[in-house]
From TrEMBL:
NCBIfam families: mevDPdecarb. Belongs to the diphosphomevalonate decarboxylase family. InterPro entries: GHMP_kinase_C_sf, Mev_decarb, Mev_diP_decarb, MVD-like_N, Mvd1_C, Ribosomal_Su5_D2-typ_SF, Ribsml_uS5_D2-typ_fold_subgr. It comes from the Bacteria. Residues 180-313 form the Mvd1 C-terminal domain. It is an enzyme of class 4 (lyase). PANTHER family: DIPHOSPHOMEVALONATE DECARBOXYLASE. Residues 10-165 form the Diphosphomevalonate decarboxylase-like N-terminal domain. This is diphosphomevalonate decarboxylase. Its EC number is 4.1.1.33. It holds the Pfam family MVD-like_N.
Length: 332
């Protein structure tokens, strides 16, 4: 009997400059670079065991065995790893999502990064950050950024070899930041990010405008990080999110991830700013609003938000670490 085990923890990340659209759907090569902040509040821990005693892949998520449809997605990703490692062993994958509430915050970024790390460790594949980032990208684009703590930029590249994330030196700027999640309760009907971005690339009249302005937004974000310029980083973060979400309105058929509650939270952020409190919002492929604020102002923003949202809708996160490969065991 051969048994190989690996275990990893990866934290989720939120893009400040968004990834939106693929140039290659199979390899998950993006149309544009993106830039993110890895957070401490939400993470996935995954154990992968490959064994000659298994006759199929099994995927447990939060201790529940997943159905065939969900497991096939994991199996396809494991196939990439098996191919690289020249292994034909099936695997048991055991993933736990650590999120403060069951509010749709579980992230494919942390999940696929942890799976890439745990499975690579188990089968003895290279664990250098760049290799893990490339591999995680094949599972879910945003996962390639969760290999790193703090700020990361996904360099889009133009091939499997050249598309991966790199850390952005920041002189500790991320330690000054906080991201407050506003978990809204009127969830929209889901359009998955994968389907939503593809529909937008193929049909949105606004997509070219999105692509044309990403390089300048990235440059502004990099400069803001280098200069620890919170206002500039916040402004470009909010602008990137608004442009990304703008593209969906011109897709055919059109769609939006925003709900009435999202708009209420966005209006509050603008109101706080008008009152002199520097904070900026971003949203991903769903209605929850994330508010970027300096740590020194976190409690003020939280207490203002508590006048409008219940305490369990508000979660403060801070910069988180990179992936941790926690164990590797081999039993022969
Ligand atoms: C991002 N999002 O940069 C963007 C912004 C959502 C909005 O990456 O198809 O799960 O697996 O590559 O990474 C979410 O999409 O999509 C995402 P796939 P992914 O974070």
């Amino acid at each position: 009997m051969h048994m190989y085990k690996g275990h990893a923890r990866a934290y989720t990340n939120i893009a400040l400059i968004k990834y939106w659209g693929k140039a290659d759907q199979q390899l998950i090569l993006p149309m544009n670079n993106s830039l993110s902040l890895t957070l401490d509040a939400f993470y996935t821990e995954t154990s992968v065991t490959f064994s000659s005693t298994f006759s199929e892949d099994q995927f447990y998520l939060d201790n529940h065995l997943q159905d065939r449809e969900t497991t096939v997605k994991v199996s396809r990703f494991l196939d990439l790893i098996r191919e690289k490692a020249q292994s034909q062993l099936f695997a048991k994958v055991d993933s736990q999502n650590f999120v403060p509430t069951a509010a749709g915050l579980a992230s494919s970024a942390s999940g696929l990064a942890a799976l890439a790390g745990a499975a690579s460790a188990a089968l003895g594949l290279p664990l250098e950050e760049k290799e893990l980032s490339r591999l995680a990208r094949r599972g879910s684009g945003s996962a390639c950024r969760s290999i790193y703590g703090g700020f990361a930029e996904w360099e889009k590249g133009d091939s499997d070899d050249s598309s991966y994330a790199v850390p952005i030196p920041s002189n500790g700027f991320e330690e000054e930041l906080s991201m407050i999640f506003v978990v809204v309760n009127d969830q929209q009907k889901d359009v998955s990010s994968r389907d939503g971005m593809q529909r937008t690339v193929e049909t949105s009249a606004f997509y070219d405008g999105w692509l044309a302005t990403v390089p300048q937004d990235l440059a502004k974000a990099r400069t803001a990080i280098a200069n620890k310029d919170f206002q500039s980083l916040g402004e470009v973060t909010e602008a990137s999110a608004l442009k990304m979400h703008g593209t969906t309105l011109a897709a055919v058929p059109p769609f939006t991830y925003w709900s009435a509650e999202s708009m209420r939270a966005m209006a509050l952020v603008r109101q706080f700013r008008n009152e002199g409190l520097a904070c900026y919002f971003t949203l991903d492929a769903g209605p929850n609003v994330k508010i970027l604020v300096e740590k020194k102002n976190e409690s003020t923003v939280l207490s203002k938000l508590q006048e409008h949202f219940s305490a369990d809708q508000l979660i403060a996160a801070h910069a988180g670490p990179g992936i941790k490969i926690m164990t590797k065991e081999v039993e022969a």
